[in-house]
Amino acid sequence: MQRFDFDVAIIGGGSGGYAAARTATNAGLKTVVIEGGQEIGGLCILRGCMPTKALLYAAEVKHLAEHAETWGVRAGKVGFNLARVMARKSAQIKDFADHRAHQLSNGKFKFIRANATFLDQHTVELSDGKKLTARNFVIATGSSVAPSPLPSLVEVGYWTSDDAIAFKKLPKSLIILGGGAIACEFAQFFARFDVKVTLIQRGAHLLKESDADTGAVIGNVFTREGVKVFTNTKLVGAKRSGKLKTILFAHNGKTVSVSAEEILFALGRVPNTASLALDKAGVKTEDSRIVTNAKMQTSAPHIFAAGDCTSPHEIVHLAVTQGEVAGHNIVKPKSPRKMDYRLLISVVFTEPQVATVGLTEKEATARGIKFLTASYPFNDHGKSLLMEAKDGFVKLLAHPKSGEILGGACTGPSGGELIHEIVAAMAKRMTVHELAAMPHYHPTLAEIWTYPAEELAEKIPLKK
Predict the structure, then answer these.
(1) Order of strands, edge to edge, in the sheet holding 372-377?
(2) Closest Cα partner for 156 from 179, 175, 182?
(3) CATH assignment of the domain containing 428
């Protein structure tokens, strides 16, 4: 019987990798985590969720102070100290990263700072020249910013999302390429910090994964806050115009040019798999993304994957769950766990926030799933009117016969918090009748869910 250096070797020390390591180690397996990044912590802590939300919250506080007169409060002239905004963000991220570094290096498992490349199905070579073997592997190498599709943009120069959380000086004007979550969050942050922002989106509406009604709400808010939005575009080229950078794009049958001090490229990320030599391990990929089954198992049965390098949904809580599932299935292969994306949650931290769980109308229609839907606007809801938070709506999708809730969407104040009521309801497979009957305190934002629930309950007769 072949002897291995480790029971489990995990390549990548981010959220997914750490979750797999914790699961394997707690079960008594000899485990090693190999992390080759310059910093420890993973995308969420270092350059994703945490720094962006810290900046967005600062922008929200500034925005509320500027509009305090709405509630009869005199705030005076509102200014800001960019250095303090960025320093607070950096200090908080350091705390999170230091905690993760401690978790990885506290001795519960071996932690190696190096890059790894497969030599065969059970052996990797480290960037320091050493080799190690393992009975099982979990690949959790994350993702990086996608390369630009425009060679001219590379010549002109641009910011990535990594640059957009680490700048020293605000540009006076900014072009953002993209209309997804990253693009929209940064668009509102920079606009609220007095940068002239132009957002150029390929698709028909912002946040193309969401329904069109959500994209329309965010588009209207952005326009009101001074962001210039172009949809249905195709990038043509980029060039320098004196001290400014110019983007050329096709729009409504014409070539349009927009210039700004800086360009932010926010058109997605790609899995970090190129340097792993996965072919030597027998691991299949599609467009550099590792192919896995519901058990997070790759085409090589003893090799698993978790997080952005494999998941079609680049969401940190899913990476954690995938890491735990991979670790569990290594420990207990005869009683495997499987990933279930029925309760897929998505949150975009613009204001209003955009949150969904389960099916959207767009996805249900594409998959041929029958549903009934009802929505209710925040501009006719007591608590949101008091808050002057009148943009957006909530929406429910229900099975047309049983009334089971199939999906929920909240584009509105505290949407990322409010969506969890529907997550809980769907986790227990509640019907709209049960949700409508559940007591809600008045006046609260959460009681808005009762209105679409009641409307759907009236349309779907209860079985006697």
Answers:
(1) 345-348, 353-358, 405-412, 393-398, 372-377
(2) 175
(3) 3.30.390.30
Does the pTM surpass 0.85? The reply is yes
Cα distance between residue 85 and residue 94, in whole Å: 15
Peptide bond into 413 cis (omega under 30): no
Amino acid of residue 157: G
Tell me: pLDDT of 464 over 70: no
Whichever domain contains 77, its CATH number is: 3.50.50.60
pLDDT in tens, 290-338: 999 999 999 999 999 999 999 888 889 999 999 999 999 999 999 999 9
Which are the catalytic amino acids?
A: 442
Report, in this order, helix, strand and coil percent for the chain, each rounded to 5: 35, 25, 35
- 261 and 290 part of one domain: no
Residues contacting 13, CB < 8 A, separation 6+? 21, 33, 34, 35, 37, 40, 42, 100, 104, 111, 140
Print the domain residue range for 261: 151-267
Count of the separate structural domains present in the chain: 3
315 and 193 in a single domain? The answer is no
From 103, 355, 392, 372, select the one nearest 220 (Cα to Cα). 392
